[in-house]
């Protein structure tokens, strides 16, 4: 056990900065001091690393699961477990060839197995490596009941969702602040008779247009996605683009949004979905497309479905093909043990029985080592 401790504890300036926020126990084998995702390896499997609070605010102004955000508040720290699926994709991203079409990665697994957190771990890597992160944290919210649905002023056969678009633009601006003044638009965009964004304007000006003029926000999101798609991987561009979509199967599923005549809106009729689907094509270079499947976004499909073919459907599968499927399983024995020790350390397990060997076996039996189920059960113990 001690040999493991000496293998995992290293030092760097970033680690020292994080240590000031959260000093782990000197012999906590379930933690690692390696808080840079780019430096994590197989020897860190099953261990928790700490995200600096500044990164949590910047990288994830949206996108973290609600229960995880509550946990961060309760534990007074943001920790993620280093798991094989995330490191598998991170390892591939390190070898990204900017001249080749973007590779599509697809995390899939049982409900609650940790797909969203694995995606977040991968996004954190991209951010620390200076990638531009285009994150859609919950695609199914774009096809779910919409508070405000307006006919598109640009295309009469499509519908705008100004509130969702404005919120997304605000969060995009927070995460990608350094790029907003560097990237210039390649074409002119006309919004109304009086308003336009000229060619050569900064990406920041384009984003601000959608935030200040809410009615144009859906089309602005489309323009931002178009500019990034066209400029990524070009010789004059000095950014790599990470497109991260949680619940990507919602883009080809069925929507619960209704038109005035009470018929269902097809996802492709939504301006936001229409433009995001374009980004899912790997006809652009200089980045990667990292996605997850979600049962939540799979309206009208079996709750036990989790395989790509089942959740994407034929149309979605054909659109995403070829992709690299990455399975996110329930916790291994080592990962469960690490999670159990972490919850003990954070005093999340209150009942004395849950701290015994028999109590631990009960938790394994009740949760089947499913991360989400374990977290919920431990909240009552």
TrEMBL record:
Q: Which domain of life is it from?
A: Eukaryota
Instruction: Note the coiled coil stretches, chain numbering.
Output: none
InterPro entries (UniProt xref) = Ribosomal_mS29, Ribosomal_mS29_met
Give a single Pfam family match: DAP3
Q: Which GO terms describe its cellular component?
A: mitochondrial small ribosomal subunit
Which compartments is it annotated to reside in?
Answer: Mitochondrion
- Look up the record and give one Gene Ontology term from the biological process aspect: apoptotic process
Q: Does the keyword Ribonucleoprotein apply?
A: yes
Q: What does the UniProt keyword field contain?
A: Mitochondrion, Ribonucleoprotein, Ribosomal protein, Transit peptide
Q: Does the keyword Ribonucleoprotein apply?
A: yes
Q: What is its main location?
A: mitochondrion
Gene Ontology molecular function, alphabetical: structural constituent of ribosome
Give the family, as the similarity comment puts it: Belongs to the mitochondrion-specific ribosomal protein mS29 family.
Q: What is this protein called?
A: Small ribosomal subunit protein mS29
């Amino acid at each position: 056990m001690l040999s493991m401790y000496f293998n995992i504890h290293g030092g760097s300036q970033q680690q020292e900065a994080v240590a000031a926020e959260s000093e782990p126990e000197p012999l906590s084998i379930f933690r690692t001091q390696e808080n840079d995702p780019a430096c994590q390896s197989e020897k860190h499997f099953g261990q928790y690393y700490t995200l600096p609070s500044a990164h949590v605010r910047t990288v994830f102004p949206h996108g973290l699961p609600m229960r995880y955000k509550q946990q961060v508040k309760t534990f007074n720290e943001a920790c993620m477990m280093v798991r094989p699926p995330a490191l598998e994709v991170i390892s591939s991203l390190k070898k990204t060839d900017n001249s080749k079409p973007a590779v599509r990665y697809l995390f899939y697994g049982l409900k609650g197995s940790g797909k969203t957190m694995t995606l977040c771990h991968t996004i954190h890597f991209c951010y620390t490596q200076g990638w531009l992160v285009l994150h859609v944290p919950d695609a199914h919210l774009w096809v779910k009941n919409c508070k405000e649905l307006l006919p598109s002023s640009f295309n009469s056969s499509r519908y705008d969702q100004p509130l969702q678009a404005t919120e997304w633009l605000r969060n995009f601006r927070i995460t990608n602040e350094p790029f907003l003044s560097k990237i210039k638009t390649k074409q002119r965009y006309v919004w109304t008779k009086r308003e336009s964004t000229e060619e050569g304007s900064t990406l920041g000006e384009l984003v601000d247009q959608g935030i200040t003029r809410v009615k144009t926000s859906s089309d602005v999101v489309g323009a931002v996605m178009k500019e990034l798609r066209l400029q990524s991987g070009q010789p004059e561009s000095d950014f790599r683009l990470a497109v991260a979509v949680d619940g990507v199967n919602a883009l080809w599923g069925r929507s619960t949004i209704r038109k005035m005549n009470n018929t269902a809106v097809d996802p492709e009729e939504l301006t936001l979905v229409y433009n995001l689907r374009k980004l899912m094509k790997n006809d652009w270079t200089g980045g990667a497309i990292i996605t997850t499947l979600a049962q939540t976004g799979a309206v009208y499909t079996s709750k036990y479905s989790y395989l790509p073919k089942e959740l994407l459907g034929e149309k979605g599968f054909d659109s995403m093909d070829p992709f690299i499927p990455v399975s996110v399983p329930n916790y291994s024995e080592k990962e469960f043990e690490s999670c159990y020790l972490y919850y003990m350390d954070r005093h999340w397990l209150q009942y004395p029985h849950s701290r015994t060997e028999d109590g631990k076996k009960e938790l394994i039996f009740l949760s089947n080592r499913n991360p989400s189920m374990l977290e919920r059960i431990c909240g009552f113990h």
